[in-house]
Amino acid sequence: MPYCQMKTAPTPIAVTHTEGVYLHLADGRRLIDGLASWWSACHGYNHPHIRAAMHRQIDAMSHVMFGGVNHEPASNLARRLAAILPGDLDRVFFSDSGSVAVEVAMKMALQYYRNRGDRGRTRFVSFANAYHGDTTGAMSLCDPDRSMHAAFGAALLQQTSLPLPNDAAALERFDDHLSRHRSELAGVFVEPLVQGAGGMRFHSPQTLAAISEACARHGVLLIADELATGFGRTGTMFAVEQAQIVPDILCLGKALTAGAVGLAATVATERVFRAFWSDDPGSALMHGPTFMANPLACAAAGASLDLFEREPRLEQVAKIERELRRGLEPCRHLPRVVDVRVKGAIGVVQVDSLDHVDRLRQAFVDRGVWIRPFGDCIYLTPPLVVAPDQLRQLTEAIVAVTEQWAAWSV
Ligand SMILES: *Cc1c(COP(=O)(O)O)cnc(C)c1O
Asked: Where is this site: Participates in the substrate recognition with KAPA and in a stacking interaction with the adenine ring of SAM (predicted)?
């Protein structure tokens, strides 16, 4: 089990099937999924359109190697992603998980400078409370004080973690760091607008724009990790749109296939791509996962994009945002709650410190909802198709259970 002391953890809940916003349990109960399986099931589960596309694809070809081979599901998907991503983010490299998409972005940035004859640029900057994945390269970009660093310590690559430039002083520090260290920097990684697993923290489009401007001014690549924020979650198709910026590299995953099957993508601008376009085999991008551009996953992702085109998902996100604000507001007055915040289809109740976690999670299951508090947050990232009464059941559960929980410790 993930991130789990298996000796002491409660028995995991047996799920037999999923449908719409529901997880169906082996004991006959069903839970409304308040997490959309870690941000991914944006159209709910088992959507008939995605299922049909996957059935067709599995009959034709579920997988073929991507070395020296191409196929329609991949080339169509790459074209469609390029068309909806901002600016000239047009060059797509597929992989099988978000962490690997981040590793590919790191390698792309390193080789970008190397291919231009600049061999000194080997380090990255990321921000306090960042989370960029679980593989060793991606881990080195996570907040060193709030992540799994403690378990791996000196074995990790050494990067620089800076406070998010939310105010003038932090912006000056960020700018100053880029100015002094640009000759050793290969890129700046940011989770645009919402930092996910490192604490569900939000920043403004102005902060994101300021990061982008500083990177451009000092000639350091900006890499946007949209693994969690991509595909409508923050109210726009991609979070970077709200700051009107075009990062040099952007990572996608999670909701890319609407949670149907694993797939991720690292997308580069034309300028980054050009640094690899050469007669020298040594300047090729040195990466190639076995299941790269898996046709079944690409077909699911294409069907998910159809749904974003045909159905009013972003309007649904705006409605979810209003309902989350209204529904979670009563938490603000509960003991031990330090903040309530909402952005798009993300609702967060931050508490002073999370204790009785297993009992808390069980209390949600007993109320028919799937919500898993972690860190210092009790949060919702529901499927974007959640109905008003289902969403109300989720927010009412958070208000009631958080109130009970606050009394457990006194
Ligand atoms: C989930 C996530 C990742 C890692 O993706 P996996 O598919 O779990 O490897 C990286 N960055 C962010 C911001 C994420 O939310």
From this structure: 3
Atom of ligand 1 nearest to the CA of 138: 10
Residue type, 75: S
385, with CB counted inside 10 A (0-12, 13-18, 19+), is buried
Q: Which regions in the chain score pLDDT beneath 50?
A: none
CATH number of 48-310: 3.40.640.10
Q: Which residues of 163-179 are buried (b: 16+ CB within 10 A; e: fewer)?
A: ebbeeeebbeebbebbe
pLDDT of residue 149: 77
What does the pLDDT read at residue 368?
Answer: 98
CATH T-level fold of 15-33+312-407: Aspartate Aminotransferase, domain 1 (3.90.1150)
Taking the centre of ligand 1 as the mean of its atom positions, its distance from the CA of residue 227, in whole angstroms, is 5
* Catalytic annotation, pick one of 131, 143, 248, 379: 131
> Is the shortest distance between the CB of 253 and ligand 1 below 6 Å?
yes
Q: How far apart are CA 350 and CA 184, in angstroms?
A: 37
What pTM value is reported for the model? 0.98
- CA angle 176/182/185 to nearest 5° reads 120
Q: Is the CB of 133 under 6 A from ligand 1?
A: yes
Question: What is the location of CATH 3.40.640.10 in the chain?
Answer: 48-310
pLDDT at 410: 67
What's the rounded Cα separation, in Å, for the pair 62 and 199?
37
Q: d(Cα 226, Cα 44) in Å, to the nearest integer?
A: 20
Other Cβ atoms within 10 Å of 32 Cβ, number: 24
Q: Which of 253, 242, 230 has its CA nearest to residue 384?
A: 230
- The answer to whether 227 and 98 have CB atoms below 8 angstroms apart is yes
Q: What is the per-residue pLDDT for 148? A: 74
pLDDT score for 145 = 87
- Of the candidates 109, 105, 131, 130, the one whose C-alpha atom is nearest the C-alpha of residue 118 is 109
Query: Token digits for 286?
Result: 């040195």
Whether ligand 1 lies within 6 angstroms of the CB of 225 is answered as yes
